[in-house]
């Protein structure tokens, strides 16, 4: 099985930090402009230097559509298709806890959900509402089911193994290549 990670512009740490800074600034604008709403910041968890290409964009859009289908009301504030990765920002007229529970349910129950990181932002706060803030289970590793942060921190799995899993998920979802 050929990898979906053979094309795309490799990203450096500097690229990723610049993308993070852009995201944080935009999130601050959104929370200030929509103080009574939740803000959902959606991105893929993609290991390695290739963060975006046609296949990853297709994967991103498929999961985002399924997450949005679960919502009754939302506004798309922005949709970014950058070399550093795809991101979508939604304005949700829901309280923070309800929004975070919906995001975690998608991440845990959808066949693609484990690839996504959906942050729910609190107005007036610099940090996203976490799973543990609501007593929800920690994110599980894509490969072994352990705590994902522990696996990432210890580099328990190789980038190649994680990319192979994501490629297999892509193939299971679409059955073809773009």
Question: What's the short story on this structure?
Answer:
The chain has 178 residues and is of the alpha+beta class. Helices cover 42% and strands 17% of the residues.
Please describe the structure with a list of short key phrases separated by commas or semicolons.
178 residues; alpha+beta
> Which strand order do you get reading across the main beta sheet?
2-3-1-4-5
User: What is the helical fraction, as a range of percent?
Assistant: 40-55%
Coarse shape: globular
DSSP helix count?
5
* Tally of strands: 5
What would you call the structural class? alpha+beta
Helix and strand pattern: HEHEEHEEHH
Mean pLDDT over all positions = 91
Verbal overview:
The structure is a single chain. This protein has 178 residues and is of the alpha+beta class. Helices cover 42% and strands 17% of the residues. It has helices at 13-33, 54-69, 96-109, 148-154, 159-174; strands at residues 38-44, 75-82, 85-92, 116-121, 128-129. It has a five-stranded antiparallel beta sheet, with helices on both faces. β4 (116-121) and β5 form a beta hairpin. The longest helix is centred in the N-terminal third of the chain and has 21 residues, at 13-33. The radius of gyration is 16 Å and the shape is globular. The model has no long low-confidence stretch (mean pLDDT 91).
Task: Compile the SSE list and pairings.
Elements: H1 13-33, E1 38-44, H2 54-69, E2 75-82, E3 85-92, H3 96-109, E4 116-121, E5 128-129, H4 148-154, H5 159-174
Antiparallel strand pairs: 1-3, 1-4, 2-3, 4-5
